[in-house]
Amino acid sequence: MNYRSCVWLLLAVCGIAQAAEVDRRIAVTIDDLPWARLDEIRPPDLQVRHQALMAQLRQANVPVVGFVNENKLEVDGRVQPARVQMLRDWLDAGYALGNHTYSHMDLNAEGVQAFQRDFLRGEQVLRPLLAERGLTPTWMRHPYLRVGRTAEDRRQMDVFFSEHGYRVAPVTVDNGEWVWAFAYANVINEQPDSPAREVTLRQLRRGYVPYMLNKLDYYEAQSQSLLGYALPQVWLMHANELNAATFAELVAATKRRGYRFVSLEEAVRDPAYAHGAEGYDGRYGPSWLHRWAMAEKKPKEFYAGEPDVPAWVKVLAKVDYE
User: DSSP for 51-63?
Assistant: First the structure.
């Protein structure tokens, strides 16, 4: 029996064991630290928004891994101590930090060699910052979830990450959270403070949480269909204004769905993650569940029913895709 067959047999056994009671677990990861779209915010506003997010994280009280783009620590090529302090705030709160590359580079577009240089540049502040606490960088997250167009590219990157002490942080619950967040930030930044603006912000907050829960339900169903059980999920989010207003509410609503929030380390112990990111050679970055489904050559109908970001949100976000 080959390796793939052994793993899928183990998954089937797990599915039978869990059939009577669904074990819903999920790990939260937050990308683009210290802040998404940071250069569009005035420094005083950035600190206020950062503190609001930290307050939401404290209220939610769940494990989180944050992923850093070090170019966001700089202004005109110089590292800003105030932005490094934002990372220290994450560490002080007990959260882990990982490497998201220096410039949020697209591996599929730029290639292995350029990506490796950019990745190492992305730990010039992070590695010594963690060393102050006796820690080393452990997790990495691919920008756009793009992990290489060929098996050889992925093999080279696996060797590279192993040599530098990193593990890849997968994503199973992919989503258009960033579109909602663009919309929310655009309204805050571009519309004058008024009752009408607050109405729009409230509509976005009220729509965002159900949308994210619908995505979670969808990927739970995908897991059940593909693996036969509820995979411990890994959720992708970003450091932004929307989560600074809603994160605790989203966590509470997810708990009401029956989920327990666990560390990324615990989530990826599940044997399904031994497959890595195999199954997809395209230019984009789908959920790991969909990559595995592609490896199994699931028909087109398998992927149907994924919730979309509403058109009115895309208009506010000024994007026509997700």
Answer: HHHHHHHHHH---
